[in-house]
Specification:
about 525 residues; alpha+beta; Rossmann fold; Alpha-Beta Plaits; seven-stranded mixed β-sheet; binds guanosine-5',3'-tetraphosphate
């Protein structure tokens, strides 16, 4: 196969959903279809349930699961599908945002009973920002959910996207009969168990076909005919380019746990979802077809064994071909590195690979060289864009509880924040360290890991902060004046970029009004 063919057959995506909508179940069914796993229950949910937030064993267990499910690859109909896992717990939302920087499209799962939920909203905002193509899967049709038209209206209104159904449900909950494939004009009848196979699909010549009445009964047949009429009247036919531009989302209906409606989804997905896309860098666009290799690190996982400090850094390949044992340029560190054991993941199987193509994600064993967002190239000095840090939601001062272990604490904090568990800021006036996170759970994780992996003890003390905002100004002098004026509210992030520590929305507004030449950014890339 040529390099271009290898690129064209890759589909790298993430499944996003509000917890419990059915992301893990759908992932598993897709892997079953791809033959990557043989039985249901093989993919563990990486959810950390609220009730177990202080159970460290649980956190460790989840970290283990989360390494093994970071990327799940399988072959389907000549396509190579790479599913990147996103954490289920909202406290790890930033991990999810970063993972979304490494995919080319997403499938969004919505529970038909609950409709659009808070996490769905947040995740979709990120997709919209990046213009990521989205396919919607409306799940749990075997439950008494909302009317399909109402759901689509809700999705369009709440998520501010346009949708186009490609399958349509017949009945719902107890009376759920199956789905009608609007493109193929075929009927897929629901058997109420998970053994649904291709044989259950019946192709109609026409929706008026009397066979339809025979199979689902007159009432449902009439209802379906009316619905299809309405769909054709209300929704334009799917324009694939608009989907690829992130302007319209095809919608499928089904029931993941019953393995129902998944094949339609997968068949359409491999056909229309984008192959690896070009990416923006500090030196212009990099195309997957470019000869020279490049890629970036979007996720880092510490080794679960505290005796081994090495970590796995996940690299998304963006151009060229990655080869084992070849030297590559680590742009930030200006170092040449080579990797003797790059790892690919096929469902739960790990294997050392000799080469990987754009769209692939591989694991690199790392002794502390990498930070999230790092770029590897074949010699050039550009950096990939689009992997920003976001302003944390929660902030705490770090207090060292064991002065004999200052170095260990420092190293632990540096490395854990390199992994992206949290963000580290250093105050301008007194050098105090502040840790910022998206959720409270991370403080527990950090405290626990500092103790178990670095033998350091720290407490996290309350600090009243609303947001940390990156600041910039066209004229350097304006920035200096501002930083002088508000020096007790200035800190530096790990890249030494200045941030303004705003104690409240009101104080932020005051600063904005008094210093109109200063720009305040909610993310580190602007
Ligand atoms: P998540 O990863 O998005 O958090 O969701 P997950 O797949 O873990 O699914 C959440 C719950 O919803 C699971 O039940 C799962 O079995 C159920 N589920 C998934 N798809 C469907 C569906 O199509 N219909 C129905 N009725 N339920 C579905 P659970 O009780 O939390 O776990 P389990 O004990 O069943 O594994």
């Amino acid at each position: 196969m040529t390099r271009t063919e290898e690129i064209k057959r890759r589909r790298t995506f993430a499944i996003i959903a509000h917890p419990d909508a059915g992301k893990t179940t759908l992932t598993e069914k897709l892997l079953l279809f791809g033959g990557a796993i043989q039985s249901a229950g093989a993919v563990k949910s990486n959810k950390i349930k609220k009730s177990t937030t202080s159970d460290f064993m649980e956190i460790e267990k989840q970290r283990g699961i989360s390494v093994s499910t970071s990327v799940m690859a399988f072959d389907y109909k000549n396509y190579k599908v790479n599913i990147l896992d996103t954490p289920g717990h909202e406290d790890f939302a930033e991990d999810t945002y970063r993972t979304l920087s490494a995919v080319d499209s997403v499938i969004m799962v919505i529970d038909c009973v609950k409709g659009v939920e808070p996490q769905t909203r947040k995740l979709l905002e990120v997709c919209r920002m990046r213009k990521t193509p989205v396919i919607v899967f409306i799940n749990k049709l075997d439950r008494e959910g909302q009317n399909a038209f109402d759901l689509l209206d809700e999705i369009e209104k709440e998520l501010k996207i346009k949708v186009r159904p490609l399958t349509w449900p017949i009945g719902i909950g107890k009376s759920f009969k199956g789905v009608y494939n609007l493109t193929e004009k075929s009927l897929n009848l629901f058997q109420g168990d998970s053994k649904t196979t291709v044989e259950d699909i019946y192709t109609l010549n026409d929706i008026q076909d009397k066979e339809l009445d025979k199979r689902i009964g007159n009432d449902f047949a009439e209802q379906l005919r009316n619905d299809v009429d309405l769909i054709d009247g209300v929704y334009d036919t799917l324009n694939v380019q608009k989907y690829l531009d992130g302007e319209i989302s095809p919608v499928f209906f089904g029931s993941a746990v019953n393995n129902f409606g998944i094949k339609e989804l997968l068949d359409c997905f491999v056909e229309i979802a984008p192959s690896p896309k070009e990416r923006d860098t500090t030196e212009g666009i990099v195309k997957p077809e470019d000869e020279k290799f490049s890629g970036f690190i979007f996720k880092i996982h510490a080794n679960l064994d505290p005796k081994h400090r090495d970590r796995i850094a996940f690299l998304r390949i963006c151009s060229g071909v990655f080869e084992r044992n070849k030297y590559y340029h680590h742009v930030r560190d200006k170092k040449e590195l080579r990797f003797s054991n790059p790892t690919a993941f096929m469902a739960q199987q790990k294997s050392v690979i000799d080469e990987a193509f754009p769209g692939d994600v591989i694991g690199l064993y790392d002794a502390g060289n990498f930070k999230i967002g790092d770029t590897l190239t074949e010699g050039k000095n550009f950096q990939f864009k689009g992997i920003p840090s976001f302003s944390p939601e929660l902030f705490r001062y770090v207090t060292n509880l064991d002065p004999m272990k200052t170095k260990q604490l420092q190293k632990g904090l540096e490395q854990l924040t390199d992994e992206g568990v949290a963000q580290l800021f250093t105050k301008k006036v007194d050098g105090r360290k502040i840790v910022g996170t998206v959720g409270a759970l991370q403080f527990e994780v950090i405290q626990h890991r500092l103790k178990s992996e670095y033998n350091a003890s720290a407490s996290f003390d309350q600090i009243n902060l609303y947001k940390a905002l990156w600041i910039s100004a066209n004229d350097k002098k304006d920035l200096e004046v501002f930083m002088q004026d508000r020096s007790s509210h200035i800190a530096y992030d790990k890249e030494n970029k200045p941030v303004f520590l705003a104690e409240s929305a009101w104080l932020l507004q005051m600063a904005q009004e008094k210093f109109p030449k200063i720009e305040f950014h909610l993310k580190s890339e602007f």
